[in-house]
Design brief:
4-stranded antiparallel β-sheet, binds magnesium ion, TIM Barrel, about 40% helix, Enolase-like, domain 1, 14 helices
Length: about 425
């Protein structure tokens, strides 16, 4: 036994001596990868918020979460009485709210809003929030960030777009997202046709596989539906497919080849989202572009996926990834490598408005963006866009902050959320 132990340590020591060839904390990387990483790391050091728009400190006095009939509003108040408002991702916030009120909001009180880039980095380690890295911590952070950006936009009299970048896109093209899993290929196709008819969009996305390895039902649905959708919509239609991590590498490649034959425009989440090496293996074998990132909570993982050329299109979700500043860093990393960004958007509240401001600021926006319908339950006025889909596109609002005014009487119905 003792001899075995000694041999083990001798071997380890030998390995350490030859350590130059066997680095312990990272695989050796090629020159090409090295060049990619240099570009990515340069981007990560660049500020996103245009601090220079603000000459004096904007000290945050209060960050409050309010709720009314399942609608969560975050209200940020500055020392000199300015207000910023965001509407949260209500599907998630009704079970994440204690994280916002206890672990996120207190951090921002007393801080200078002009330091938002730094604050978003620091809130991650505040009270060990990194232990919750996923949308558990990032949806609350995004909710507060959006309210602060609304506040800053109102002070600077600029839309959020121009606080985090420049206006690259005045209109946003949308694609209709749907989910007809479990329905026959024929029924799925009818549903897709109906939705495309409603928005007149020039692009569509449909679901293939079963979510995260569930069965593809009815059996064989995806492989039948892929050619059917192309045939039904013709060569002009832009077609995307989303597997929600439903395949292993072998099956993803087989189905991906079908997509290639049918000239699909991207294949989203072919394998489980945190199978990074497998995502790259699939990408290396296919010519249909591979998209992913909606579940990602880690900047470093996006860096890996881009540094290793594991994705063709990045899809951070601006709520799930912790807001516009972090998502812009991902978009800019992709841009540095000549890749587009097509953000994912979780469908609730005013998610589509945040998506539009973000996309408007992207130099590398994809041509079409996810759209899950307008919100008709929150009463607000938008003076700078009719917020209608016309010819598959929506005008991006250009007023200050989020560029809308929510009815005050509706805001007043909301009560402050308190937790134990
Ligand atoms: Mg998806």
């Amino acid at each position: 036994m003792q001899s075995n132990r000694r041999n083990f340590f001798t071997t380890l020591a030998g390995g350490a001596i030859g350590g130059a060839l066997l680095p312990s904390f990272g695989m050796p990387i090629s020159e090409e990868e090295n060049r990619r990483y240099e570009k990515l790391d340069k981007v990560l050091k660049e500020p996103v918020l245009k601090k220079e728009l603000f000459s004096t400190p904007i000290i945050i006095k209060e960050v409050n979460l309010l709720v009314h009939e399942g609608n969560f509003i975050c209200k940020v108040l500055s020392e000199d009485g300015q207000v910023g408002i965001s509407v949260s991702n209500n599907i998630r916030m009704h079970y994440l709210y204690p994280i916002l009120t206890k672990r996120v909001a207190p951090f921002f009180v007393g801080k200078d809003a002009r330091e938002l880039d730094k604050l978003i980095e620091e809130v991650y380690t505040y009270k060990s929030n990194y232990k919750m890295q996923s949308y558990a911590v990032w949806v609350p952070v995004a909710t507060v960030e959006f309210a602060i950006l609304d506040l800053l936009g109102r002070i600077a009299n600029k839309p959020i777009t121009q606080l985090i970048g420049d206006t690259h896109n005045k209109k946003v093209g949308v694609y209709q997202a749907n989910n007809f899993r479990g329905k026959s290929p024929e029924e799925s196709l009818e549903g897709i046709k109906k939705q495309v008819e409603e928005t007149q969009s020039k692009a569509l996305k449909f679901k293939v596989a079963g979510r995260m390895g569930d069965k593809d039902l009815p059996e064989g649905r995806s492989e039948q539906l892929i050619p059917m959708v192309r045939k039904a919509f013709g060569d002009e239609m832009v077609i995307y497919a989303d597997a929600n991590g439903g395949y292993d590498v072998k099956e993803a490649i087989r189905i991906g080849k079908l997509m290639q034959e049918n000239k699909f425009d991207f294949f989203e989440e072919p394998v489980p989202f945190d199978w990074y090496e497998e995502t790259k293996q699939v990408k290396d074998k296919l010519s249909v572009p591979i998209a992913g990132g909606e579940q990602e909570g880690s900047m470093h993982n996006f860096r890996w996926l881009l540094g290793n050329n594991g994705l063709d299109i990045v899809q951070p979700d601006i709520f799930y990834f912790g807001g516009m500043i972090r998502s812009m860093k991902v978009a800019k990393m992709a841009h540095a490598l000549g890749k587009p960004c097509v953000p994912h958007i979780s469908g609730s509240g005013l998610g589509y408005l945040y998506m539009m401001h973000f996309v408007s600021a992207l130099p590398n926006a994809g041509p079409y963006h996810e759209f899950k319908g307008f919100n008709n339950t929150i009463p607000f006025e938008c003076k700078t866009s009719d917020l209608k889909v016309k010819d598959g596109k929506i005008d991006v609002p250009t007023g200050p902050g989020l560029a809308i005014d929510i009815e005050q009487s509706y805001i007043d119905k909301h009560k402050k959320v308190t937790t134990l």
